[in-house]
Amino acid sequence: MVSMDPEPRSHHSSLACPVLGFEPVTLWFLSPHNGSCSLWSEGRCRRCLAPVGGAFAALSLEENEAFGMMKHAWDSYRQYGWGHNELKPLARKGHSTNIFGNSQMGATIVDALDTLFMMGLHDEFRDGQAWIEQNLDFSVNAEVSVFEVNIRFIGGLLAAYYLSGQEVFKAKAVQLAEKLLPAFNTPTGIPWAMVNLKSGVGRNWGWASAGSSILAEFGTLHMEFVHLTYLTGNPAYYQKVMHIRKLLAKMERPNGLYPNYLNPRTGRWGQHHTSVGGLGDSFYEYLLKAWLMSDKTDTEARKTYDDAVEAIERHLIRKSNSGLTFIGEWKNGHLERKMGHLTCFAGGMFALGADGSPGDKAGHYLQLGAEIAHTCHESYDRTVLKLGPEAFKFDSGLEAVAVRQNEKYYILRPEVIETYWYMWRFTHDPKYRQWGWEAAQAIDRYCRVSGGFSGVKDVYSSNPTYDDVQQSFFLAETLKYLYLLFSSDDLLPLDSWVFNTEAHPLPVLHLGNATLPGSESRR
Q: What does the entry list as the binding residues for Ca(2+) (predicted)?
């Protein structure tokens, strides 16, 4: 029986900042860089995290489970896939996809850095840093996804920089960002989905409606690009993402909803398909998080988020016959009663956005988050493996169950555990830890192989086959959220850090009366 303490365990020390000597603040460990905290001295964030040996004596059973899974995933990648983007754990070799241009960019290394740091795996962190210093090269002839490279690489590098203070991570993030800027060279300023890192030539996915860019891709750049301007003083990054926001604000939105497709040549919507899952999801997430990251001064972002959520509630959120709350998809004038695993992040988003909601709706949105968390837990609980399918339906007498074979797979996705973590942070209801523990045990039982972790092709089969891919986001997100779920609230507190959509923590920017280069005050 797993212990479910009403209060999270803590293994930190309360110390004065070793540099400034201010009043006691929560420091996770003394900084490894010469015994001082460069993050404090540079005024960039409000917490210092740094690993030291022997930090895990007080870890709970649940924390140790997530820690052990991370160690197995990393060690397997280190042995069999080092330098490749991802790992094929059964074939025991490297793996890559077209989102990285099939080049060896070490995506797993960059994606995992902050999780390693957070867990105190400092030897592994230094191995990753050494590889980045010696091998990470953005001058390769590779056509990459602007979105994926931004959230995984720029987000991962920035988080590693803020946590460790190591300048190499900031330098690499800026180098890569410069390689992405040509993607914005379109008639509208809406970036292409892909860009060649060497030539700067961009294009969109061939499958996208009418040559469109994707809402969740061009709408999920704000957090990282604002931090790039903050760190470098170069206004270009901030101006690029604010131009996107201004363009969207001028456009007519059917029923107040944002379609998933926008043509970067004409500035017109493509197919009228709206989703809070794939193709749309993180656009809404980044509206809320832009407000949070600005120390709640970006009221324009907050208003845009609130208006979008109101339209989502009106047109996409429904209850099933048995009372399960779900978020459907709007396609060509009708609601499709299907919810994706990706959509399950929204439970955490609603909870995160509850404080600051218009009117007296904080309780309403916290409850909505809880209802989405419950529905997504049901999608796990109604499978044989107790792992959630890629998508699940709410019609024809079926609820929270996948119908099509190509929607029954689980590829180590984090969104359900992410929502459990946010709901735990805001409610401390022990059921969220219990549900997370069940998910961790199921992943360890059915997805662990000797060479790492693999997704499974059918969560309704007692004898599933593997897809033979250890996704980089498994180390960046799934295992990070699991570990955080069972850790103290003082580890990466939500009043000081905002997580990008790849779970990379970036500090809240406390600018006071100052403004970013290229911006105007929004106060």
A: 501
